[in-house]
Amino acid sequence: METLAIAISATLIGAFFSLLASFFAARKLGAAPLLVYFFKVCINLFRAFPPMITAIIFFRGLGPGPMAAVLSLSIYTFAVLSKLFYESLENQESSTLEMAKSLGASAIQTYRFVLLPSQFDRFLALALFRFESNLRNSALLGIVGAGGIGQQISMSLQMRAFEKAGLMILALAVLIFSFDRLSARLQKQLR
Predict the structure, then answer these.
(1) Among 19, 23, 77, 96, which residue is least crowded by beta carbons within 10 Å?
(2) Are 70 and 58 in contact (CB under 8 A)?
(3) Cα-to-chain-centroid distance, residue 42
(4) Interatomic CA distance for residues 105 and 98, integer angstroms
């Protein structure tokens, strides 16, 4: 349950902030070029550090536990989703944006009422993919002290309880497979 809570929290936090950042990073929405460049550099900088590295940094500041894992995975989720979503926004047809501007919509209104609804299915698919990845990564981070099933697997291996560790690995695989099937079904219903 702790592994699942880490993955859900990290995905929700990262997805929320990526929606905000992608607004400023998308060139077509008319933000100042310097602001667009700043956000793109920040997003790429956060993407450069794998979750394991940021988790170790947070372990030093917060101590081992699930909070360090949530923060680490949130930052990486934010960076990956921001990049994918602002690229998706930049690939939006210009005629849609021009139509919204001709109606007098501001950049925020265009983003909120035109782009988000049209790109929602894509963003949801990306967020679900990141959730599955966060589920696996939270198990890995648990091995180095972030809690959850990864920490239990690590302790079982240290105590040479291989059957217990194998059962937990199997449970994790079933959980990931189940969420993969659930997300595929959800995406099919949204189409």
Answers:
(1) 96
(2) no
(3) 16
(4) 10
